[in-house]
Write a structure and sequence with these properties.
By secondary structure, the chain is an alpha+beta fold. It contains five helices and five strands; from the N terminus they run βαβαββαααβ.
């Protein structure tokens, strides 16, 4: 199955370069349909460019606090320069604490195609 998601330019470029291997999302109804082996077509919000990936794995967490304690953040969109400031609160720009409690969160391990 193929899914479609949008990304801001910086995470899109990091995914395209292979530096970002995990996409972090809310584990809502749409994301619960994602299975290992599925494809995800990402579209850059700014340029409209697309990037096709395959799902190699997925992990569900109660919230971003648990996810940030478990996954390698350098593979989740942070760089050596931004890692020291990395915080689960960063994800609240996208998903409220109430949404995280309701749905949980998801880390999708990706491979570029």
């Amino acid at each position: 199955m193929r899914h479609e998601m949008k990304l801001d330019p910086t995470p899109f470029l990091m995914l395209a370069s292979g530096r970002k291997r995990y996409e972090l999302r809310l584990n809502d109804e749409k994301r619960r349909k994602i299975e290992v082996g599925d494809e995800i077509l990402f579209t850059d919000n700014a340029t409209g460019k697309t990037l096709l990936t395959r799902v190699l794995g997925k992990e569900v967490f109660a919230d971003f606090d648990a996810l940030y304690r478990t996954l390698p953040l350098l593979e989740c969109g942070y760089t050596e320069e931004t890692l020291r400031l990395a915080s689960p609160r960063d994800m609240e720009a996208y998903y409220s604490p109430a949404e995280q409690r309701k749905f949980g969160v998801l880390a999708i391990l990706l491979q570029l195609l």
